Amino acid sequence: MKGAKIYGIRDIRVEECPIPEIKTPEDIIVKVKAVGFCGSDISRYGKLGPHTVGAIFGHELSGEIVEIGEQVTNVKVGDGVVVCPTTPCFHCEYCQLGKYSKCESLQVIGAKEDGGFAEYVRLHSRSVLKMPEGLDFETACGMEPACVVMHGFYRTKIQAGDTVAVLGVGPIGLFAVQCAKIFGATKVIAIDVFDEKLEIAKELGADLCINAKDIDPIQVVKEMTGGSGVDIAVESAGNPFTSAQVLSLPKKGGTVVFMGIPYGDVAISREHFEKIVRNELTVLGSWNAVSGPFPGKEWPTTLHFMKEGKIKVKPMVTHRISLDQIPETFEKIYKRDSFFGKVIVFPEGKEC
C-alpha cells in the first residue's frame, strides 16, 4: 500500500509500505476512505518535525473495516466507521478518574504509531464508532476536530441565549461557529483576517463577521453588545497575538476558552491581562476530544449532529487530493502560495 511518512521538517514522502496486520484480538484493520489535514499536522511539517521519524502521518479519518480480531464485538467487516485517533493509557491517576484528556501519556496515531495518510491503518476496536446510514466519509473524517470543539464547549457553562465570539475561523473556528449555535447561542461573531474564511463562517451560521485587518474587533464587539462584551470568547486561531486579544472580548464575569495552540511565546499587554482580574473572567484551557466513558459523549453527540446536517464539513473543504499529492500540498500551505481551507485526502483517488 501507499503511505505518507514524515521524516523531518518539510520532508514528507509517499512510499510503498506493508499493509498493517492484526496484532491483538481487539485490533481492526480499516481501509481509509477520507483523511483530513489538521492544523497541528501543518505546524509539525513546517516547524516542529516528527514525533517519530518515518511514521505515517495523519489522524482525522474515516473508513471501512476490512478485518477484525477474534474478540471484536462492537463492529464488523464492512462497517463504515469514524475514528477517535487519541488513546489514553487507561492506568494513570487521571485515567482512573475517567479524565482521559488529562492522561499523562496520551497518544495520537500519526505520532508514534502509524496514522491515516495511507490506504489502510490498524486501530484498536474501541477507537471507532459505526457511521450511521446516510453519512458520507468526507463529512465523517471531520469528526475528530469537531469533537475537539464539542469538548471545549462542554468545558464552559454556555446557556441558551448567549453571545459567542470566535477568534480565528480556520477549521476549528468554523466548527466552533456551528457548535455555539447547537449549544444555544443566539448570536455568533466570527473574527479573522481572511475574507475567504469569513465567507465560509457566514455560510455556516455566523451572524456577524469581522475582518480584524480592517477594523478593531474589540470595539465592534463592544458596540454590538451595548458596551458589555460577549458571554463566551473562543480562541481558535492558535496565534500569540489573538491569544492575548481574546481576553478583551468577554463581558464582566464572562468566559474565555482556549482551543487553539500558539506555537510561539504569548506576550500579553497589561490592557488585555488585567481583564482577567478586573472583569473576573473564567479562563479555560481545552485539550483534545476525549472524556469518560471513553471516548466520551463528544463523539456520539457530534455524530448525531453530523447526521442531522447541523455540523457541516463540506463548505470548509477547499482542496480534495490524492495520497500522491500530500507532499506538494503541505509545501504549498507552508509557502502560503494560495488560500487553503480544509484539505481532504482520498486514498482511493475519488471523493466519498
From TrEMBL:
Residues 8-345 form the Enoyl reductase (ER) domain. SMART domains: PKS_ER. PROSITE patterns: ADH_ZINC (PS00059). The keyword Transcription regulation does not apply. It holds the Pfam family ADH_zinc_N. Its cofactor is Zn(2+). One of its GO terms (molecular function) is oxidoreductase activity. Keywords: Metal-binding, Oxidoreductase, Zinc. This is Alcohol dehydrogenase GroES domain protein. The lineage of its organism: Bacteria, Bacillati, Bacillota, Negativicutes, Selenomonadales.
